[in-house]
Write a structure and sequence with these properties.
The structure is a single chain. By secondary structure, this protein is an alpha/beta fold. It has 2 domains: 122 residues, Serine Threonine Protein Phosphatase 5, Tetratricopeptide repeat (Alpha Horseshoe), CATH 1.25.40; 280 residues, Rossmann fold (3-Layer(aba) Sandwich). The chain is 55% helix and 6% strand. It has a 5-stranded parallel β-sheet, sandwiched between helices. α4 crosses α5, α4 packs parallel to α6 and α14 packs across α15. The longest helix has 23 residues. The radius of gyration is 23 Å and the shape is globular. 41% of the residues are buried.
Amino acid sequence: MQPENLRNLFNSLISSPQDVQYLFDIASGFRELGEFDKANRALELLLELEPSNAESIYWLSMQNKSIIGTDIASQIEASLTKNAYGPNELSYIYFAAARLREQQHCWDDAFAFYERANSFHKQALCLWNTDAVHYLDQCEFAERMDREWRIFIENSSYEEKFSNLVDQGEDLVFIVGLPRCGSTLVETILAMAAESVPLGEVGFLATAIRESNILSVLQADPKDFDLYWRCLAQFADGYREVVTNYPTASDPNSSIFLDKTLINFLYLGLAARVWPKAKFIHVERHPLDQIISAWRARFKEGHYFCLELNALTKVYIAYSKLMEYWHSILGERIYKCIYEDLVSLPDVVTKELAGFCDLDWCAELMEPHSSKRLIKTGSFQQVRQPINASSIGGWRNYENQLKDCILLLNNAGISI
């Protein structure tokens, strides 16, 4: 819905609120726009119609900087004693309660509430296990296949075929990482440049890979280069078609496409081979800040490995190992954006990011909070604030509870 239409609908519903779903949709729209006052008002009206709406209580806890001493805090406390909620609603309530306890600096209680919130969310999703094993397998598969095919191609006469590709991919930038690494901030910064087209987390690359059947070809024995080449071409054409047909791609000023689908870290080898001049930004954050932040987030869908700290830590280790391999292979084609450096030295790092992406740096890149684009990720609130370092070191509030994670990371050679 266009912002102006959204505002008109908001004004009509404010005068006569009757439809819960409409109010919720309006709140979601204003949240994505960064207009939190209107989003909060819509949810407050919704709660007047349906006082026990757990998801609205959750979003009000997330959209306000502080809820201590407010009506929403009272509603959260009262909701903890109700028996009328199912697992999905209880998940929302306990996430909200955990956020309230954090603001009260009751860290042990907050951690316990996050545990219960994730447990109820897992129940609501009917999951016996998380999807961590899938990610662990995919990380191992990506590195193994890349090593095998790299050796096969280098020991043959096929390498020169890749130097003659028509589509070099110089207009493609892939931003990768794990959830809550700071990738939304990086994308929003780069999106302030007039030449950029932010695609968001579109999943186009994974779709093109699946439709090309390239993953099956990678596993074939003996290796068939001609089939591999045809699948690569189909994969490249499929991705290019959906990107160039993206709604904002027709802007004559557009010259750089920003794909922020985090899972693309699995496919850097294929993308680098099919587009020799494509660029990759790896957003990295302190391991424990990354892990605890992802675990404290309630993702509406996907990222199920974040429901359990142990599973999340193991995925982080596998991802780190794979990214270390990509860095060793792709070298300067990957820019490692350290989140802590970005928020502490934005004047330096934003210039490095712009230069890496062949974008003209301008002062607007220092003010991503002024962006008018929709923010649909869990970082919706942080990105609407001026760049700041307030989230650095947040893991220390839970240091005692993270001992098992720290042990796993240390055993994997990841320093804390």
